[in-house]
């Protein structure tokens, strides 16, 4: 897919299911991604991440040759674009996490998100990139703001997480601004 410096993003392989199961059974990762009440075993990873009808492009994040996280990107559908207040723009969304906690706090997330924005603008001709982090996920919101995304809309009770609906921010990056 693409590389930038010590960062490499490649498409998900079948053998990566073990990594995903490891990361998505870690309560610290699950605190903001999927929920601590929703751990993934190998069977659940295979069901959720290797579904053929899913149009998301699923990728593994490598840093300095080590597999450290996950990112997916997808074109936003017409219904969601309408909900968000967009028209005919080419809008992409991403979801990501660093699964290896030893790589947290090293600005790798910032490098990952900014590199994905560059990739989507150049290769997919995206006009906008959007993300919808939970409002309480301060670390993610700050990372996205460092990458040039801005909060544009509060999405009340957007995501069911650990038994409660959480508010999320719609954050966007407009290409060319």
Tag the structure with descriptive keywords:
single chain, 8 strands, alpha+beta, 177 residues, Aminopeptidase, globular
Plain-language structure description:
- The protein is of the alpha+beta class.
- The protein has one domain (2-174): Gcn5-related N-acetyltransferase (GNAT) (Aminopeptidase), CATH 3.40.630.30.
- The chain contains six helices and eight strands; from the N terminus they run ββαααββαβαβαββ.
- The chain has helices spanning 17-23, 27-30, 42-49, 78-84, 108-123, 138-146; strands spanning 2-4, 7-11, 57-63, 66-75, 91-98, 128-131, 150-161, 164-174.
- An eight-stranded mixed β-sheet has the order 1-2-3-4-5-6-8-7, sandwiched between helices.
- α5 (108-123) links the parallel β5 (91-98) and β6 (128-131).
- The protein is globular.
- The two termini are 25 Å apart.
- The model has no long low-confidence stretch (mean pLDDT 95).
- GO terms for molecular function: N-acyltransferase activity.
- This is GNAT family N-acetyltransferase.
- InterPro entries: Acyl_CoA_acyltransferase (IPR016181), GNAT_dom (IPR000182).
- Keywords: Antibiotic resistance, Transferase.
């Amino acid at each position: 897919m693409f590389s930038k410096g010590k960062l490499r993003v490649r498409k998900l392989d079948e053998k990566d299911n073990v990594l995903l199961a490891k990361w998505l059974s870690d309560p610290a990762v699950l605190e903001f991604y999927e929920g601590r009440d929703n751990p993934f075993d190998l069977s659940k990873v295979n069901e959720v991440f290797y579904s053929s009808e899913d149009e998301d492009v699923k990728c593994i994040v490598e840093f300095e040759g080590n597999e450290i996280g996950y990112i997916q990107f997808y074109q936003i559908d017409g219904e969601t674009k309408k909900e968000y207040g967009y028209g005919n723009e080419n809008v992409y969304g991403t979801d990501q996490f660093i699964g290896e906690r030893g790589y947290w706090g090293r600005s790798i997330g910032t490098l990952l998100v900014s590199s994905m924005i560059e990739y989507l603008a150049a290769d997919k001709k995206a006009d906008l990139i959007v993300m919808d982090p939970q409002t309480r996920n301060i670390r993610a919101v700050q990372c996205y703001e460092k990458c040039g995304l801005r909060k544009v809309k509060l999405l009340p009770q957007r995501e069911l997480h650990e038994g409660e609906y959480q508010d999320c921010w719609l954050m966007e990056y407009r290409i060319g601004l």
